Amino acid sequence: MDITDLQGTVTLSNQVEMPYFGLGVFQSEEGQEVMNAVKWAIEAGYRHVDTAALYRNEKGVGQAIRESGIGRKEIFVTSKVWNSDQGYDQTLKAFEISLNKLGFDYLDLYLVHWPVSGKYKDTWRALEKLYQDGKVRAIGVSNFMQHHLKDLVQDAEIMPMVNQVEFHPRLVQQDLVDFCLKNNVRHEAWSPLMQGKVLDLPEIKAIAEKYGKSTAQVILRWDLQKGVITIPKSVHRERIISNANIFDFSLSDEEMKTLDSLDKGERNGPDPNNFNF
């Protein structure tokens, strides 16, 4: 992945350009809070916003983008179908609801939020139809492990273009990263900072001090250098700006290995192999 600046992109398997850095809005409250976050991010140069039906803030996200003064085509917007809406017909309906809340006539990326057993293949068929009908520019999955992906593609017409999973220095899952890259599925990180739980690790602090950067900036730079799209969440203007200030330094191979070595297989969120929602 060629890392240039905040508006740099990766090319998905269908040649769509996706910004490799964006704003996540999980737990950003609908209304003024999420609208402010999105507007501040766009002002700072972000061109990628990631939401989901579950977050219940799609309306605010859409309104903020419309009021930003930046054209819709310039902003890459992702949403996701929630588990209770999975299945072929239900997914098609859920997509239209999300689209109406956002106030858009298309989405840039639509994801299956979790691999709901017995449903995700039908859900994927619905995403394929949405893609073929031109209602979404790219389709993908979230929280899919290797075995989920292998199972899905046995019956799929289209390979997922993105897999968004929990990813941070305590949960690298290098085998999954490698599998995705090998199969031209872009790996994307949610909770890249483990909700702050990795910011005080001494190994990262030492690297941060060397570059005059924050530990968060070091971690987010590590994401990009590993070829991983990343969407840190914040509702604070200074943090949103700071998170994106990662294009004036690069980590050495040794420093990359240092962060890789912090992997302990620790999850902050649910286990994709064992969830009940």
Automatic annotation (TrEMBL):
<dbReference type="GO" id="GO:0016616">
    <property type="term" value="F:oxidoreductase activity, acting on the CH-OH group of donors, NAD or NADP as acceptor"/>
</dbReference>
<feature type="active site" description="Proton donor">
    <location>
        <position position="55"/>
    </location>
</feature>
<dbReference type="Pfam" id="PF00248">
    <property type="entry name" value="Aldo_ket_red"/>
</dbReference>
<dbReference type="InterPro" id="IPR020471">
    <property type="entry name" value="AKR"/>
</dbReference>
<feature type="site" description="Lowers pKa of active site Tyr">
    <location>
        <position position="80"/>
    </location>
</feature>
<dbReference type="InterPro" id="IPR044500">
    <property type="entry name" value="AKR5G"/>
</dbReference>
<feature type="domain" description="NADP-dependent oxidoreductase">
    <location>
        <begin position="31"/>
        <end position="263"/>
    </location>
</feature>
<comment type="similarity">
    <text>Belongs to the aldo/keto reductase family.</text>
</comment>
<keyword id="KW-0521">NADP</keyword>
<dbReference type="InterPro" id="IPR018170">
    <property type="entry name" value="Aldo/ket_reductase_CS"/>
</dbReference>
<keyword id="KW-0560">Oxidoreductase</keyword>
<dbReference type="InterPro" id="IPR023210">
    <property type="entry name" value="NADP_OxRdtase_dom"/>
</dbReference>
<dbReference type="InterPro" id="IPR036812">
    <property type="entry name" value="NAD(P)_OxRdtase_dom_sf"/>
</dbReference>
<feature type="binding site">
    <location>
        <position position="113"/>
    </location>
    <ligand>
        <name>substrate</name>
    </ligand>
</feature>
<protein>
    <submittedName>
        <fullName>Glyoxal reductase</fullName>
    </submittedName>
</protein>
